[in-house]
Specification:
Shape of chain A: elongated
CATH class of one domain in chain A: Mainly Alpha
Number of strands of chain A: 2
Helix content of chain A: 40-55%
Distance between the termini of chain A: 34 Å
Strand content of chain A: under 5%
Oligomer: homodimer
Order of helices and strands of chain A: HHHEEHHHH
Radius of gyration of chain A: 21 Å
């Protein structure tokens, strides 16, 4: 899994903590998280394409959430960056075996190996779709060092654009 | 996830269906599954290193399970090929933020973003550790086209080495 997932989750949570309607520049999101601006912009654009963020042009431009944080699941962000396809890809090896038949009907039921791998991915997705960006923001605030939280919020407040 | 996972699972299940103590050559496992012998040997060696297969030298040589199929989980095979580490890697972005403190104690509790990603991977692993190679063999036999199964078994029986 690419590091973009970590960056995208942190940025989405950070934007969720901004005043309603306010934006942050990609440059400031990169500075805030201490990551490469060029790479981050690529991931932010992926979040925009997925309909999770809005990108506003002009002087008051920047990024903000496209819908409430409680309506963006962690899975939404992960799939925006990594794609929706399964990580395990079945190439239907069973049809290449010496005994294989050419009758498609014989393979209507999925290969149990594929079914098992997909069941595991489904369990993975269930956990991520069951947590929202709002959940993460709340949890981060509850766990954070209070002074660090205040200093971070102060830094962000000087960059927020309305 | 690499295609090696699919190949390794199919080979392990195929070996589980062999007479006790019998072996199959890597070349025949590659032929049977219609895959590259050179790549397959690399994956078979990973399964040997993980203690899931035994590799016997000499004229009666080849591969066989190192322990009963009911004691090899799907997760055992997947981690032998893909490694045991988590797919999501937290780089502790939170410690690079402007408000961050240098006191390690402030970060004793894991970042909720990391905790969520690891919970999802744990759910994924639970599914794979709950299914064994014996389960897969049984399920494949129950679902397979009977004639294909017989032809495949006949082909394998001419290659089995005792």
């Amino acid at each position: 899994m690419s590091q973009g997932v970590e960056w995208a989750l942190h940025c989405t949570v950070t934007l969720a903590g901004q005043p309603e309607g306010a934006t942050l520049l990609g440059r400031d999101l990169a500075l805030y998280h201490g990551v490469s601006e060029a790479y981050l912009l690529k991931h932010l654009q992926a979040l925009v394409r997925a309909g999770l963020l809005e990108s506003l042009p002009g002087r008051a431009g920047g990024y903000r959430l496209a819908r409430p944080a409680a309506e963006i699941s962690v899975l939404d962000v992960v799939t925006a960056i990594e794609g929706v396809g399964p990580s395990f890809r079945c190439s239907e090896i069973r049809r290449r075996q010496p005994g294989a038949t050419t009758e498609a009907a014989a393979y209507r039921r999925p290969c149990p190996i594929n079914a098992t791998m997909l069941a595991a991915e489904s369990a993975w997705r269930d956990v991520l779709s069951g947590r929202t960006i709002a959940d993460l923001l709340l949890e981060i605030h509850r766990r954070a060092d209070f002074d660090s939280l205040v200093r971070g919020a102060e830094w962000l407040s000087t960059r927020t654009r309305n």
